[in-house]
Amino acid sequence: VQLQAFGGGLVPAGGSLRLSCAASGGAFLNYDMAWFRQTPGKEREVVVRISWGGATTVYAEFVKGRFTISRDNAKKTVYLQMNSLRPEDTASYYCAAKIGGPARGPLDYNYWGQGTLVTVSS
To answer: DSSP per residue over 45-98, as a string?
Structure first.
């Protein structure tokens, strides 16, 4: 499966953005999906993950109550709605996919989109 992430940009603190990740070339319904983020010099960290059917979502503590993940399997797209953005949310955001197995971290995901940069100004 190929993934393409888009929707990043510059937003003031307190603002909102919606990221999208469009998949092609695979049976999207089979894939567990996740959003990760990374800043220079730091490890890639998971933001949120969603199961193949959308029934299970797991959020990092630092985004709970502010970010919402969703997926539209008919459109082969996963979304990340980001509200109440903070300067510390500034990062490149990556979508990732895997089929089954554990979801312990980046190494468990087989497919990656290119990053989309989110910059939150203070």
So the answer is: EEEEEE-TTSS-EEE-GGGTTTEEEEEETTTTEEEEEE-S--GGG-EEEEEEEE
- Contact (CB, 8 A) for 75 and 19: no
Pairwise CA distance, residues 47 & 59, whole Å: 6
| Rama region for 33: left / alpha / beta (φ>0; ψ in -120 to 50; rest) | beta
**Cβ atoms of residues 96 and 112 within 8 Å:** yes
Cβ burial of 23 (10 Å; 0-12, 13-18, 19+) is buried
Distance (Å, whole) CA 76 – CA 71: 8
Which residues, listed in sequence order, are joined to residue 20 by a DSSP beta bridge?
6, 79
Q: Over the stretch 13-35, which tens digit does the pLDDT of each residue have? A: 999 999 999 999 879 999 999 99
The pLDDT of residue 26: 78
Banded pLDDT at 78 (limits 50, 70, 90): very high
